Amino acid sequence: MTALESSIASVRIAAAAADRMKASDIVAYDVSDLVGITDCMLVASATNERQVLAVAEEIEKDLYTKGGKLKPQGREGIQEAQWILLDYGDFIIHVMHEEARDFYRLERLWRDCPRIDLELPEAADAAADAD
């Protein structure tokens, strides 16, 4: 079982929005084999609460305007802005303060899952530099 193409496309839209807002360490995993309730998980870091909130808002805006009017089914952590979770059903977005991300280390839960190529510009630049 693999993630739906629509979920991967939406996660790429979210990653591009996070990247534009200067989020760091943006990664996504195809968790469809491990987790039965969702296809993909995206995690992005921000340096402070204001940036965490700005990144989450930009992701929501882009998924609505560029992703076919997608709206999250659930939103958690908006008030504290340490870890904002946006639940879109088929995929879940985690925007985390760097300290919270270091503490919870979510990636260790999904390390056996395939990473999704987010097609971000910096990844393409890094690949070109390697050649």
TrEMBL record:
Protein name (Swiss-Prot/TrEMBL): Ribosomal silencing factor RsfS
Main localization category: cytoplasm
Subcellular locations according to the entry: Cytoplasm
General function of this protein: Functions as a ribosomal silencing factor. Interacts with ribosomal protein uL14 (rplN), blocking formation of intersubunit bridge B8. Prevents association of the 30S and 50S ribosomal subunits and the formation of functional ribosomes, thus repressing translation.
Family to which this protein belongs: Belongs to the Iojap/RsfS family.
Subunit: Interacts with ribosomal protein uL14 (rplN).
GO cellular component: cytoplasm
Keywords, ordered alphabetically: Cytoplasm, Repressor, Translation regulation
Keyword Nucleus: no
PANTHER family for the chain: IOJAP SUPERFAMILY ORTHOLOG (PTHR21043), MITOCHONDRIAL ASSEMBLY OF RIBOSOMAL LARGE SUBUNIT PROTEIN 1 (PTHR21043:SF0)
MF terms (GO), sorted A to Z: ribosomal large subunit binding
Pfam families named among the record's database cross-references: RsfS
Biological processes per GO annotation: cytosolic ribosome assembly; negative regulation of ribosome biogenesis; negative regulation of translation
Stored InterPro entries: Iojap/RsfS/C7orf30, NT_sf
